[in-house]
UniProtKB/TrEMBL annotation, chain A:
NDH-1 shuttles electrons from NADH, via FMN and iron-sulfur (Fe-S) centers, to quinones in the respiratory chain. The immediate electron acceptor for the enzyme in this species is believed to be ubiquinone. Couples the redox reaction to proton translocation (for every two electrons transferred, four hydrogen ions are translocated across the cytoplasmic membrane), and thus conserves the redox energy in a proton gradient. GO terms for cellular component: endomembrane system; plasma membrane. It catalyses: a quinone + NADH + 5 H(+)(in) = a quinol + NAD(+) + 4 H(+)(out). Belongs to the complex I subunit 2 family. Keywords: Cell membrane, Membrane, NAD, Quinone, Translocase, Transmembrane, Transmembrane helix, Transport, Ubiquinone. This is NADH-quinone oxidoreductase subunit N. It is a multi-pass membrane protein. It is found in: Cell membrane; Endomembrane system; Membrane.
UniProtKB/TrEMBL annotation, chain B:
This is NADH-quinone oxidoreductase subunit J. It is an enzyme of class 7 (translocase). The keyword Oxidoreductase does not apply. One of its GO terms (molecular function) is quinone binding. GO terms for cellular component: plasma membrane. Keywords: Cell membrane, Membrane, NAD, Quinone, Translocase, Transmembrane, Transmembrane helix. NDH-1 shuttles electrons from NADH, via FMN and iron-sulfur (Fe-S) centers, to quinones in the respiratory chain. Couples the redox reaction to proton translocation (for every two electrons transferred, four hydrogen ions are translocated across the cytoplasmic membrane), and thus conserves the redox energy in a proton gradient. The keyword Cell membrane applies. It catalyses: a quinone + NADH + 5 H(+)(in) = a quinol + NAD(+) + 4 H(+)(out).
Amino acid sequence: MTAQQLTALLPFFVISATIVAVMLAISVRRHHRLTAFLSVVGLNLTLLSLLPTWLAGTGPVQVTPLMVVDGLASFYMALVLVATLGVMTLCHAYFEGYRSDREEIYLLILLGALGGLTLACANHAATLLIGLELLSLPMVAGVAYATSDRRAVEGGAKYLVLSAGASATLLFGLALIYAATGALDLKALAAILVNANLGQPLVLAGAAMVLAGLAFKLSIVPFHQWTPDVYEAAPAPVTAYLATVVKAGVLAAALRLFHAAGAPPSPLVVKALTILALASMIVGSLLALRQDNLKRLLAYSSIAHFGFLLIVLVAPGSRSLETAGVYMATYLITSLGVFGVIALVSSPAGERDREKLSEYQGLFWQRPYVVSIFTAMMLSLAGIPLTAGFIGKFAAIAVGVESDLWLLVSGIVLGSAIGIYYYLRVISALFVPMPGYERVSESMSWAQSAGGVMLLLSMLLMLAMGVYPEPLFLLARP
Amino acid sequence: MELLFYVAAAIALLSTALVVTSPNPVHALLYLVLSLLAVATTFFTLGAPFAGVLQVIVYAGAILVLFVFVVMMLNLGRRTTEQERIWLSPVAAAGPAILATVLLFMLGRVIMPDTTLTAAGLKTITAKDVGIILYGPYLLAVELASMLLLAGLVAAYHLGKSEQ
């Protein structure tokens, strides 16, 4: 390997070293704050280690046939790492009051982040599969982290079985395409998807299975059924991880498969993607309407959001690649904020998270600061102007209009219109006047305030993206 | 060789279907052993002897024996001993035994001295080829797979730990 390739792999070395260091530290002495500190320092170093390759700007660096570190990879690696940092901060606040072992969650999340980095750089079917597994397998234990809670264990089992099924489907699909064409390289696979036609039954069946496997991880209808159950069962920081880190990593891999060839995918693939996208937008929005559980509502909202996002896989060209990055960044920062607030008002971990909508009635009068952030994040999810969510949706619709995808654009408009109703329903519940309320002074332990600072930062970043989105577009430009 | 491939593949499919449909775990495990052996045989016929050997040693040998022991150990007491005797009756073993005999017969036919051996696959992959690939271009995949194993280990440790 040359020095340039080793530099490109630096983030992997740093995060692997962090994983080993955290594991050893836990085995020597269980100390919650020390473990969290080590993990956060390691993640920050990993984020810094992205810089040399990014600043050098030498274009794509191919490292063995398995990985390529290019602009797309750097951007999504940064997204994965920033989201992981946010999740770590929430974990620290949330698990501070947890009675059983708290340290493993950091190890699991770090391992998951390594999977996210692998997916962002994946250039080969082998790295795609290993990255996907590394991203989701640790979270089986994450979802079922509170092993004494039946609901959590059930959610973990559900995630284990279904996610293994999805990975098996993906592997089978890759094997079928390999049998027909002998291609394992993602660039070659992308070119095969462009030229897929009815004369290649093996390739088409394989493409369908690959699409199904990825759609499961992105929770696209009809592969979405696990999402509300698992989101509900998992501790709030783990839900935040599932909604941000996992989605960013898988999206990067999906972009390489369906978008990297520079030409639109074959009409058959486009038809399948269009149907999946429309179904997600409509089904996600409609099912969210009748939810009384905030986590389930957000799960359906994420299904609808990824329906909107699928438009970038259908539209060819570098504009839509840029849009994918912008949309993902805005969605990521917003969900981190929303789940962050749920984690903060739920901790210290009680019997179950505060997730019923009725438990949020009039919360503003008790905890005004946190709820203000929550409101801003909800407005961003709804796509109100001056928030990041608006920019994401605007970019997605712009790409759709440019490529004449009117069906999908009208789907986005319809889905967003329905969305405003259920987001506003949550907001109005927060501000219901409570007679005889008592303002609870927010418990400001060190951990809680660190979580609060993270939330405040993410809200500022969200507003900055909404008001002045230019730098974000520049960063996301491949 | 091609005939052996198809017979072994058919046995693999049939016994895997029986794994899923068997109502009791020990029978299912017997079929699973057979299914893994049949898959190993298809690997041999395709010209991948190393993968076939690993399949036999690792899956049929180590992992399955572990499965059987776990299933047996979970059932303690006299009543379950009785249950086990019924489970392991000769009749229960008949199905896997017959299928295994077919597999053995086909294998025997192939290794008769007067047959010419050509792999059904395109070429034969030896252990050396696998090693060169794994520690050359696929080195990163090996390292990442070790991290994946670590993730599995940590997850299993956390979930399996008993609450005091």
